Amino acid sequence: MKKNSNLQELMGYAGGHRYLTYLSLLLSAVSAILALFPFVFLFRIIQEVLAVAPNYAQATHVVRNGWTAVGFAVLSIVIYVCALMSSHLSAFRIAGNIRKALMAHIAELPLGFIGEMGSGKIRRIVNDSSAATETYLAHQLPDMSAAITTPVCMIVMLFLFDWRFGLVSLLPVILGFAAMFKMAGPSMAEDMKRYQNALADMNNEAVEYVRGVPVVKTFGQTVHSFQRFKGTIDSYYDFVMSYCKKCRPSMLSYTVLVNSAFAFLIVLALILTGGGPVAQPVLLNFIFYVIFTPLIATAMTKVMFMSENGMIVADAMSRIHSILDAEPLPEPRGGRVPTDNDITLENVTFRYTGGITDALHDVTIRAGAGETVALVGPSGGGKTTVAGLISRFWDVTGGSIQIGGVNVKDIPKDTLMDTVAYVFQDSRLLKASILENVRLARPDASRQEVERVLHEAQCDDIIQKLPQGIDTVIGTKGVYLSGGEQQRIAIARVMLKNAPILILDEATAFADPENEALVQRAFEKLSKGKTVIMIAHRLTTIKNAGRIFVLREGHVEESGTHDTLVAGGGLYAKLWQDYQTSVSWKVGAAK
Ligand code: ADP
Fold first, then answer.
1. Centroid of ligand 1 to alpha carbon of 109 (angstroms)
2. Does the model's pTM come out above 0.85?
3. CB of 418 sitting under 6 A from ligand 1
């Protein structure tokens, strides 16, 4: 039932090409039937040879029958190729359409979802899961049609020639399937799920391991120091070994049985001859069935894998649905456009999906239009979450967020995007020219405008050192930009957008103080006249902020100006003291 609905859903992506899939099923079945015909002619050859023995010269039809057998074999192959061609045309279309649907849906989803799922996983689903449907539709489905047709025709043929031999040929197949039946069933689907999970865990940990290679190398460690990675490999190994052991008796019996049809035939032949001389028709049928029955093993093995293929595509579909079923945040109907640029978070509570505690609890923060407000506090305090909520990467669990007095939920998505700009800590630049990268913010901007914002964002030194200036493509050979340089270009991009509200996430580490100073100056130019929420890691950068909110464990611990907070002697005063000690330590260490 499930398989059907998966197929129906896949066909929904095929459009007019679905008929090609149906055609491929038909052609594949025809090809499977034709593939059995050579055996009929083989039978005739054996029949004739036995009839004329020992005067073999009288066997005049052998060559013709031989060529006819070859003819059918070739025809069967040609038709199979046609089946594959039509199945591929449709499968490529379907996989392409699934990818398009996924990408279109991802563009609608809030950024928070993308962050939570991880871009790696999303990429794998878009690429690999849609590719799995392609393998299924292009190869496995037509093969399945053949796998069903072949045994049906074979059973007819088995009984057509000599029903006694036919019955005996089927006996090992029935016994083999009985043995397999023990292995399959609901426990197999459960095991398959466990297998996929063990594999996914191991893959995830492998990615972590590769990320951690610099650390491993720096500290001269080995793979054994990645206990979790090793743990997932071990549990994968344990699972696969125990699963193999569990399957071994059934698999062994099945393989032995379906391949031993000839032994059953010999017993029958001995019974039929009853110890006397071999009658010619018995010999003829015996030879024919011995040649024909190995086909059963091949056909049955294909039937067996059908359910596994079904499971793989079901798994791919459920992964695809993990994206397609994610709801975009509700878009306000006839939304309202804020007329002012002040921001108010009122008693905001927020919990991440699957989180056990609130990431933010009863947080109230206000930033007047044109004011710069800084968020500081220990890591994990909730700064990034506040910034994400203002940009509506997620919706609040409780309380409200307003811009210019309008709840962000009531502001149309496009308006909100034009109103709030976010400079991320690790601003990603695309593999495109600097001009194109900056223009992403406003595709109709002129070259002069882009040059102006690059200048404002302190990027002159970057442009000068690049071979083709602003037309240099980032990521090409020999073009390398440091983190600070990338962030300055990202600032230029946001400048071009010219949104009235800015969220700045200061990068934590710059290689050199010169870069740091330039980024700082670019931030200042960008912030002029705007409402700014700044996530600050270096406290000197926010000394002049209008107000500072200190977040700890998801709530506002204290707020005020730098001077009042230092005088208050609370958490901020301690952070400030620690910060100054670390700066003087750095200066001392540099001497
Ligand atoms: P900060 O920016 O101050 O370091 P965050 O806003 O990143 O803090 O995190 C606040 C809390 O929310 C932390 O306890 C963190 O573990 C949790 N958190 C952050 N992102 C997620 C997420 N995607 N899923 C679940 N919990 C998260």
1. 20
2. no
3. no
